[in-house]
Structures are given as structure tokens and as C-alpha cells.
Amino acid sequence: MKKQYSIMAFVFALIMFISSTAFASADESFIGNMIAYEREKQIEELLNKRAELLTEDNVDIAALNDIDRKLVKLGVEFLSSEEVARQFPQEKAIKDLVMYTKREVSSQTEVSPQVDTPTSNVNTWTSYRVRYYYNGKYYNVQKLIAQPKSSSSPLQNVGSRVVYFSSNWQAGVQNVFETAAWSALGLIPKASIAITFYDAIRSFWDGIKTTMEVRAPHIVYSWSSVTTVVFSYVRLDDQTDDYQWLSHISTKTNTVVGYQMPTVEYKNSSGTWTKVPVPDVIQGKRTIEIVPDGYNDTLSAIIAYNSGGTVHTAVERIKISGPESKTVQYIYPCYPQFPIHCE
After folding, report:
1. How far apart are alpha carbons 262 and 219 in whole angstroms?
2. 16 phi/psi in degrees, rounded to 5
3. What single DSSP character describes residue 92?
4. Could you give the 3-state DSSP secondary structure of residue 227?
5. What separation, in Å, do the N-terminal and C-terminal C-alpha atoms of the chain show?
């Protein structure tokens, strides 16, 4: 009886040990994922602030350098275009090609990688890694991020346009401009903003009423849109970078839309058109961050890695409209398939 009791006690203790080990392992992986997630959020917030600075006509270099120092403290590396070309060749965009290349190298067969080396100096390239646990395995996910450093970069869209009008509108109803943006899934939530004539005028003249009729012979529009691209390269944690491949590509934009109205008139109580009593041009600007669902989503990158195909989550187009929904400009942000497409 004592022997049976000892065996039962041993089995119970073994079960408890295995269970506690499993729970400890689960807790460890959960905590690890949370730490990685919080770090990524900090990096993403800094990159967003960086993109906002880049939309300005005169970039605050001191503020930009301060952000870059904070990124480095979080483990972000700054890469040259040559380092990008060397570490992230185009064949890494196709899983089967990565596996084939690795097998060929392992069998000592010479392979010539198809690498297009970027020669321009129009972007800032950064990279960081995170370790995530998913579905019983640990994954190493390396993010390669591109942001423009020059207006000649494909990642920056800058322009202006004069649009003429011959109608008059109710100040509180008609918009000076409005925006909308789309991804492959359709209209992007929270990407729409609208500024009415009432909103635009009241900061210059408090006599404006929402019911007043107004007119502007022409409006000068300007825009500056900065695209941030994230390329996610995934491999199993116990593998080398020779096995990583590009499973997820995502983009977001920070867009500033400006307007100038040299002449704005309103219809007074006697029915006469009168110039709005302001000494300067009525002008303003609005900034909007356009982020499609799934942007920089590490879990989506890991799931795509296991499914075998690259997933794109990108801003396809942005529309700026004037009064009466008249199209001012379509912006088509860079939609890269490889890092080289950003150069």
C-alpha cells in the first residue's frame, strides 16, 4: 500500500511539475510577446513623429536628430542603401526562391544573387528585430523601414495647384477641401477630413456665420505626403538570416494639405457682395495620418510566412477634393514590391 501511495504521489508530483512548467513557459512567451509589442509601439510612434517632421517645408534637423537618437536607444539600426541591397536582395521576396538558394549554397553550387544596388541617396533606411512566439514556435522578425530624405524620393509627393470657381456657397455647408484614402480593401477609416468655408474663415474674421453665402474666385492648394514603408522579413528563431524572406509589406502616409484664398467675399444683409475684412490671405493647413488596417502588423507577417505568400497592406491612393467635390488632386503613394522600388 505504501509503495502504491509513493507511486501515486510521484505521478501527481510529476504532473504538477509538467503543468507548472507548461504554464511557466506560456507565461514566459506571453510576457516576451508583450515586451516586443510595447517596444514596437514606441518605435512606431517615433517613426510617425519623424514622418510628420518630414512633411514640413523646413525640416527641424535638431528635432529629427533627437528622434533618431531615441530610435537607436531602442535598438534600431540606420543602414546605407548599399547595406540594404546586400542584406535584403530581391530573391528574399519569394519563399521558394529563398529555400532553393539555400539548398544550392548548401550543396556548394555557385549562385549569383539578382541584386539591384541602390545608387541614389534619397531615403533613410532603418532596421530592427523582434522575437515573437506564435502557435508553438518562436520567430525572428526583422523590420526594414524606409522614409524619404529628399523630395525626389518616390516616398514623397509634393505639389500645388490653382483651382478656379464661379459659384457661391453656404459657409457652413460647403468644404474648402476634403480628403479620402483607399487601400486594396477599400476606403480607409479615419482618413477623411473636411474643412468648411466657415472653419477656414472664422480664425481670421469672427463675423462669419454658417448661413452666410461666400465665394472665392480661386483657391491655391498644396500638399506634401510622406510614405513610410515597412518590409517584414521572417524566419524561425533558430535559423540564420539565409532563411528569412519577405512575408509582409505595408505602408502608411503622413499628408499635409494646405490652402490659400487670396480673395473671399460674402453676401451682406443688403445682398451686396463684400470682401471679407481681413488684411491677409485666408490660409491654413491640416495634417492627416493615413494608416490602413494591418500596417506593420508582426502577427500578420508571421501568419503570411506560414501561408507561403507575401501580403501587402498599403495606401493605394489619396484624393483631395475642393468645393462641390471637385477633384483637386489624386496622390498615388509608392507601392513597393521590393526595397529597390523605394529608391
Report:
1. 7
2. -65, -40
3. G
4. strand
5. 78
Alpha carbon distance 55, 300 (integer Å): 29
Q: 10 Å Cβ neighbour count for 279? A: 5
d(C-alpha 68, C-alpha 62), whole Å: 10
What is the residue-wise DSSP string for 312-341?
EE---EEEEE-GGG-EEEEE-----SSGGG
Give tens-digit pLDDT for 188-232: 988 999 999 999 999 899 999 999 999 999 999 999 999 999 999
β-pairing, 245-261 vs 282-290, is antiparallel
- How many domains, the chain? 1
Predicted pLDDT at 105: 43
Residue 15's CB: how many other CB atoms inside 10 A? 10
Name the residue type at position 24. A
Helices marked H in the chain — which ranges? 2-54, 61-73, 81-87, 95-106, 197-202, 298-307
Strands 175-183 and 194-196, sheet pairing: antiparallel
For 337, the domain range is 2-342
Nearest to residue 340, comparing CAs of 74, 93, 103?
93
How far is Cα 335 from Cα 333, in angstroms, rounded to an integer? 6
Going by pLDDT thresholds of 50, 70 and 90, the confidence category of residue 119 is: very low
Higher pLDDT, 192 or 6: 192
Average pLDDT, the chain: 87
Length of the chain in residues, anyone?
343
Going by pLDDT thresholds of 50, 70 and 90, the confidence category of residue 292 is very high
Q: What are phi and psi of 277, to 5 degrees?
A: -75, 75
Residue appearing with cell numbers 540606420: 78
The model's pLDDT over 152-173, given as tens digits with 9 standing for 90+, comes to 999 999 999 999 998 899 999 9
Q: Please give the average per-residue pLDDT across 265-293, as a whole number.
A: 93
The amino acid at residue 290 is I
- Residue 196: partners with Cβ closer than 8 Å, 6 or more residues away: 171, 172, 173, 174, 175, 176
As beta bridge partners, residue 227 has 253
